[in-house]
């Protein structure tokens, strides 16, 4: 993007979850010392949540209302009145972060400088719905934020600015999400002034380096104990906090809330066999190596440490030689 814009930027922000709220907060915190104004926020319609299924506003809507920013919540942009409402805002740029809607070309072309996206990966790696989770599951050691010029493709636009972030061996998707959310706000603010004065030049993505971050499903959480310990430990961390990893036991499905890689050496145990039990956790054999499970949850129970579980009604399922992933008698 090389077009210079001399007046203060009129910004429309579009986002929905906590990740997006962090970018909106960064804009709110820095608008006093920067040459822009937030004229409106777009977010998903309120959704039912909790046991009572009451309508709940998104984190982005709640934040916008706290700062008296007008909020728009179209179901989509198919209706002409919704497109016209956006046009009437006379925005210079639309910033999109985890909005949850695919924007048609007519919307992308409405702001004078188009739409930019705060994307939680170092494009062209991990386009798509779940870039944070997929990076952890794949064993990536580095990720980051890409500020991208949006086009009609899925995360295919020119890259404007990047900020890197290490992935720690202990990171879950949850912990990495929180760091990337903050980094996303920092990257966004860093991009706006160069963008306004025409100093950001878009870089095309190398299609040969792309990979797709498929949407997560609950079924993905089932642990295959024939896989190696490194793969399993990454999967457990990558699926936390949602959808979570789980395994079968004779007492029902056991959720795995925390586990660490213990060994990658070949062992003489059955896949999924509990080889040691202590207050520190369960050592479980895999197709190659072992992991240490430290927090779990049985049906009808709460999340707890292995030490607490050993004092509960499911302690018989957590004994040496028992096999996880098996529903019948595995004595």
TrEMBL record:
(6S)-5,6,7,8-tetrahydrofolate binds at residues 121-124. Its EC number is 2.1.2.9. Residues 10-192 form the Formyl transferase N-terminal domain. One of its GO terms (molecular function) is methionyl-tRNA formyltransferase activity. It holds the Pfam family Formyl_trans_C. Residues 215-313 form the Formyl transferase C-terminal domain. InterPro entries: Fmt, Formyl_trans_C, Formyl_trans_C_sf, Formyl_transf_N, Formyl_transf_N_sf, Formyl_transferase-like_C_sf, GART_AS, Met-tRNA-FMT_C. PROSITE patterns: GART. Keywords: Protein biosynthesis, Transferase. It catalyses: L-methionyl-tRNA(fMet) + (6R)-10-formyltetrahydrofolate = N-formyl-L-methionyl-tRNA(fMet) + (6S)-5,6,7,8-tetrahydrofolate + H(+). Belongs to the Fmt family. PANTHER family: METHIONYL-TRNA FORMYLTRANSFERASE (PTHR11138), METHIONYL-TRNA FORMYLTRANSFERASE, MITOCHONDRIAL (PTHR11138:SF5). NCBIfam families: fmt (TIGR00460). This is Methionyl-tRNA formyltransferase. The gene is fmt.
